[in-house]
Every structure is written in C-alpha cells, then in structure tokens.
Amino acid sequence: MPKRFSASEYSEGILAGNRVVLSRAITLVESTLSTDQELAQQVLDAVLPHAGRSVRVGITGVPGVGKSTFIEALGLHLVQEQGKRLAVLAVDPTSQRSGGSILGDKTRMNQLAAHPQAYIRPSPAGRSLGGVTRSTREALVLCEAAGHNVIFIETVGVGQSETAVHGMVDFFLLLMLAGAGDELQGIKKGIMEMADAVTITKADGPNEVPARRARREYQNALHLFPLAPSQWSPVVTTSSALTGAGVPEVWQVVEQYVQHTQQSGYFQRRRQEQHLHWLHETIREALETRFYARPEVQARLAEVQQRVQEGRQSAFSAAEELLRL
Amino acid sequence: MPKRFSASEYSEGILAGNRVVLSRAITLVESTLSTDQELAQQVLDAVLPHAGRSVRVGITGVPGVGKSTFIEALGLHLVQEQGKRLAVLAVDPTSQRSGGSILGDKTRMNQLAAHPQAYIRPSPAGRSLGGVTRSTREALVLCEAAGHNVIFIETVGVGQSETAVHGMVDFFLLLMLAGAGDELQGIKKGIMEMADAVTITKADGPNEVPARRARREYQNALHLFPLAPSQWSPVVTTSSALTGAGVPEVWQVVEQYVQHTQQSGYFQRRRQEQHLHWLHETIREALETRFYARPEVQARLAEVQQRVQEGRQSAFSAAEELLRL
C-alpha cells in the first residue's frame, strides 16, 4: 500500500501531468471510504479551475461492433496526427473487473495504451450505476486538469449508463454494424435518439457495400426524427478500424459539431446545465440513499412494495406510509 | 361550495358510476390542501381493488396535428361501435386553464363530451409537472373504478410530460402530419422512440397521397430502431377524422398490442413495474420537496448553484455543502 498523498500533493501532481498521481487520484475518487471521499473533494475543488478545457465524447455500441478497435484507431489518429492528449474512461456498472466486457484489460488497445499522450482507465468495479457515473464524472475532471484535451467515455449501449454518460459529454457517438437487424436488438431503445453521429463500423472488404447502404438508410431515418436542442442534424458515416478509412472523418464531424454549438452558444449553455444537473442528481441520490438505509424503512419496504406491485395499495398512500416512519 | 363528502360517500358514488361524484373526487385529488390529500388517499385506497381493468392509451402530437378531432373520432367509434366506456384525461403542466391549448374547453369535442359513455377531464391548472402527473395518475384510478374501460391520456408532445405519461399507460400513440418537416421540430426528441403506433392524421383529399408516403417512410425508419422491451414492432397507419377512414384501424392496433403483450406476460409485468416506479417517484419527490423547502437550503441555494454553473465548485462538493446544512 503506497503512502497517502496530501490534497496538495495530489493536485500538484495532477496539474503537472503526472500519470501515476492521476491514477491514484482516480482510485481515490472511486473509494467509498468517507475519509477518502473527503480528501477527493479537496483535490477536485483544487483542480477544478484547470478542468473543462476538453472535448468530451461519449462512445457507445453493443459488444461485437468493434468498439475497442475503433477507439484505438480514432485515438491513435488523435494523438499521432492531431497532437491531442486523450483520456479514455469507461462506464460499465455490470463489470466486475472479470468479464472484461469493456476495457476490462488494456491489452485490447495495446498501441493506444502505450502511447505517452493517451491515458486509459477501465470502469470502477462492483459499484452501482450511481456510484460509477459519479466517479467517472470526477475522473473526467481529474483527466482534464492533467491536460487531456479529448476525453472518451465508453459504454456498452445495453443498459442505463448511456443516459448518464449523455449527461456528462458534449458529443454522443453511436457505433453500429451494417445488416444489424439482430445486433440492433442488443441496443437499448432510446439510445439512437441521443446520437450526434453514427458510424457504421467494419466498412471494409465485402462489408463495404452493405455498410454504405446502411449509412444511407440510417441517414434517411434520422432525418425523419426531431432535432435535438443543439439544432445539430445527426451525421452518419462509415469507417473501418482495419483500413483506417473514415476514421479521421469521424473526428471532423466532432469538430464541426463543436464549432456549430460554440457559435450558437449551445456548447457552453449545455455544460452549465450539466453542472447543475449533477448538483441536483447528487442531492437526490444522497437523499434517497439516506432514506432507504433507515432501519425502519428497510424493515417495511419489501412488504409495502409487494402490496403496491399487486395493486392492493396505491403508490401514493404507500409512499406516505413509508415517509411517515 | 358544495358540502364535503365522506370517504365512503366518494367511493360508493364512484363505484356506482356517478359522474358528479367522480368529478368532485378528481377535484379532491387535485387539491393541494393536506386535509383534502388525506381524504383523497382514503378514497383511492378504497376504490383501488376496483381499478386496473382498462386499456390505458397515451396520445400525443403537437398543436395543429388535429389531436382533438382525432380523439373525438376514435372516442366516438369506441363508445358507439365498441360499447366502451371512455375517459379522456389531459396532462399539460403549462396550461393555466386559459390558453386552452389542450382540452382547454370541452367544446372542441362536442359530440364525445355529450355522450353518456364518455367522460372528459381537462388538465389541472397551475401545478408543477410532478403535481399534474400525480393527480392524473390518481384520476386514472378513479375513472377505472367508475367503470371506464378505456382511458386516453393526452399530452402536447413538446414538453417533459410524455415520459411521465409513458410511465402510466399501456400503449403510446403518436399523431403526426404528412410532410411535417417543420412541424416535426415542435416534437421533443425522444418521443418518437416511445411510440407503439404512429398515425399520420388528416389523410384525406389532396393530403391522402403524401400521408401514405409518410406512412411508408416512418414505417421503414422505425424498423431500423431497436425494439422496446415489449418486443412489439411499432405500427404506422394513416387516418382521417374527417372521413373516418383508418380510425377504427388504430383501435385494432391497440387491441393487437394488448393481445400480444398479455400473451407474453409483458402487459401485467409492465403495470407492476409502473406501480413500483410511482412508489419510488413519489418518495423521491417528497424527499426533494422537503429538502429544497428548508430555509437554510433556500438561503444558500442560489449562490451555490451559481458557483457550480460557472465551474467554480464541483457539483459533488456543492451537494455535500447543502446536504450538511
């Protein structure tokens, strides 16, 4: 067990871009110990003025879509060709650091993980969705303070994490496969409407023609749908992590989006809304956690839920009953 | 001011199908007085065993789509041809009983309002979204107990009410116009993905051909999207409230959906989930309302929000600060 740093040792190390200190600070924000949490908040408040100067991109897609290889290809383009400093975080509340369904080990992004301008961090293990999203949100701030100017936040597209991730990024990218009738079933309904861009992956070899057809179909379909408040019309592209074709173009779309929304003022407005959202979400979570942890509530909850579920008591009178305790 | 009924006078009147008592009971659940709320809960718990025997349909569409005329046409079909007893409720938190944007007066559904098997109730005025959805949820229970076996819940499709309504109905119907490029902008993103069916309205005269084309386009687009947990593939139809063409077919789709989901067990499972959802939502709302109403929180909130919004304090340490008060 390494010795504990002080708050200023953490914050100075982070601001100096020290990756070891950054990693240990992220471990600190992931800790559920209240002493760690207190220290983490001091570190976060100290580095906060140096955060915020990045483009935050949520990337999602079901297993099999080629997410790791795509992120490696796009990431290498950013660090090698664009001079960016990239951090890749993951939100995967189901991961128990065993299945490795998502960034489970860095070996799936060999080259990117080895690059000095890239920092890859898997999802914290064995925590609730609320816990994972909170510590990811905090890790994002730490990575920005450490000088990373592009942040990827990766999710698997099958759960509830996407809404949370959508609430902490500037841009939401969905990876899809051509001819994905069946694969599509794996994606949770509602995710497609969050996408600012869709890229049809593995568009190489015999897959290239179906990929281009899928691109057209999705582009047409998305045009039928209402615009987001950003007034940005979602873009659909094809890409191949194997040949590299279409990979830089995805980043061009992100940059166009950033330019579009910075000019309209939406970019900054949305970030401010996100900050407020996280304030109120954190309060909500704390209030609920305290309430449901109370012994008298725990003693009655199962029975009350049963009655409500079976329609023997109205949700509202049941809520009253628990709140009166 | 009519005299107050007792809880049993309310519940007996409702169960006997007395519309005057039903109306006064809904006024009671809409009241924010705590004595009224207590009485309302007694009434609700008393009639609850007699509720739940209806098909609950959410209907949404932006102003101009012809929602009132469509609801009147479909409603008259149900009460006249199908022998149904229909209740139409509205969720419109913006309505101040003046603009009449939604069911503001019943005169827009003349014939339906006059029919003895139909009961129409506008949105409660001047309340928050939480308040409106809660009282609508309770009014739904009262209408079912009064013997209505089809419930329509109408929203305007531009706000946040749709998610709440989606959480209290079995089936979600979206009304759209052909060639609605511009009208579409009025619909909030995310609503289309909630639809179990879409009907292209005003499909008559010169509008019939574009309506049929729009039907095909939407049907194709929706097929590209993931299935909901119901495993139901959304259906797109055309209809005309003017000629009546396609109106009975919308109801056939609803009945097919009910049959499909009752056979799979999804119908009942979803209702149980909805009950639990409302329990936890009610608790959450009560906890938040109590927290934000505390004078020491109110005194600090604006300043803390400002700091968080401007990125001068992290959402999490700000939340801690407020929670410690």
Structure overview:
The structure is a homodimer of 325-residue chains. With 325 residues, chain A is of the alpha/beta class. Chain A is built from 13 helices and seven strands. A seven-stranded parallel beta sheet of chain A has the order 3-2-4-1-5-6-7, sandwiched between helices. In chain A, strand 6, helix 9 and strand 7 form a beta-alpha-beta unit. In chain A, helix 4 packs across helix 10 and helix 12 runs antiparallel to helix 13. The longest helix of chain A is centred in the C-terminal third of the chain and has 28 residues. The first copy, chain A, is globular, with a radius of gyration of 21 Å. The first copy, chain A, starts with 6 loop residues before the first helix and ends with a helix. About 4% of the residues of chain A have low confidence. At the A-B interface, helix 3, helix 6, helix 9, helix 11 and helix 12 of A face helix 3, helix 6, helix 9, helix 11 and helix 12 of B.
Low-confidence stretches of chain A: 95-106
If you average the pLDDT of chain A, what whole number results? 88
Strand content of chain A: 5-15%
Strand order of the largest sheet of chain A: 3-2-4-1-5-6-7
Oligomer: homodimer
The largest inter-chain interface, given as chain pair and residues per side, is: A-B, 62 and 62 residues
Q: What is the CA-CA span between the terminal residues of chain A?
A: 43 Å
Biggest sheet architecture of chain A = 7 strands, parallel
Secondary-structure content class of chain A: alpha/beta
User: What does the radius of gyration of chain A come to?
Assistant: 21 Å
Can you write the helix and strand succession of chain A as a string?
HHHEHEHEHEHEHEHEHHHH
